[in-house]
Design a protein that fits this description.
Blueprint (H helix, E strand, L loop, with lengths): L1 H57 L7 H37 L4 H16 L2 H16 L7 H27 L3 H9 L4 H31 L11 H12 L3 H28 L4
Helix pairs in contact: 2-3, 2-5, 2-8, 2-9, 3-5, 4-5, 5-7, 6-7, 7-9, 8-9
Length: 279
């Protein structure tokens, strides 16, 4: 009997050991499966995208070299500078004419010009670009060509900034004391001579800081030309960045805008110091 009981206990121990070993093996297999799954997920979500990005940018000559990128951005830089220069050439004298209308003694002219300035300053430049570009077709039925997009940018920018310059001019003119007009009249100056020889030089000196702010803003606003499909520098930078999946075009664009504005600030500061002839 004792011998049989020992045999039964031995068999039970073997069965218990086998079950424990099976459980241990199963736990080890579960852990190994989890490890494999984690490795696969890591490869899918991290390694594979990095490999695709590397292959797109650095393999097979597909990476756009810096020289090629600069060449493409240079064409956009030329357009941005062109928008900047043309806008200043038209908006500065146009702003002076609008200023005269704003200060006119005729209530009808003064009211129309005031409404124009209010609309230009109260609506976004982007919206004005779209109105100038699509307006001829939707309002008058005139078909527009692809070359009209750059002309629309020139028109929209010029009439927009002319409104701001008009108010700057008006503030400078009204800051001149009435005694200077009376003195010029006594000396025999005409109204035109009084304005262009006495008043305007002082106005330019006084409004120069405000004009500098608007000019710097104009440099940055040239990027809005993308609304009417004008390929200025920022538009080209976005296209290259999307195609190459790189931030380098944006960095180059940022450097361009910063350097351009820095040059504008330096030039305007020198002009301002030159006009401080009483110091």
């Amino acid at each position: 009997m004792q011998t049989q009981q020992k045999k039964i206990q031995l068999i039970q121990r073997k069965m218990l050991n086998s079950q424990t070993g099976t459980k241990t093996v199963m736990i080890q297999e579960d852990r190994s499966v989890q490890a494999v799954r984690i490795i696969k997920e890591w490869r899918v979500h991290f390694v594979h995208p990095l490999f695709l990005l590397y292959r797109r940018n650095f393999s097979g000559g597909k990476l756009m070299s810096l020289s090629v990128m600069l060449q493409q951005l240079a064409s956009g830089m030329v357009v941005s500078v062109e928008i900047f220069v043309v806008t200043l050439l038209f908006s500065l004298p146009l702003g002076l004419l609008i200023c005269f209308g704003r200060m006119s003694k005729n209530p009808a002219i003064r009211g129309i010009v005031s409404a124009y300035i209010s609309v230009m300053r109260g609506t976004p430049l982007m919206l004005q670009l779209m109105v100038v570009y699509f307006g001829p077709y939707f309002i008058f039925g005139i078909r527009i060509s692809m070359g009209y997009s750059l002309i629309a940018v020139f028109i929209a920018f010029s009439i927009n900034y002319a409104a701001y310059f008009a108010e700057i001019y008006r503030g400078g003119i009204e800051s001149i004391s009435a005694g200077q007009y009376e003195a010029a009249k006594i000396l025999g100056y005409s109204k035109a001579q009084t304005f262009f020889r006495i008043i305007l030089p002082q106005v330019i000196k006084r409004i120069l800081p405000s004009v500098t702010n608007e000019v710097i803003t104009l440099v940055k606003d040239t990027s809005l030309a993308f609304v009417v499909a004008v390929s200025e520098m920022f538009t080209i930078a976005k296209q290259i960045a999307s195609a190459q999946t790189t931030m380098m075009p944006f960095v180059i664009a940022a450097v361009f805008y910063f350097v351009f504005n820095l040059l504008v600030a330096i030039v305007m500061d020198k002009i301002e110091k030159k006009l401080n002839y009483y110091r």
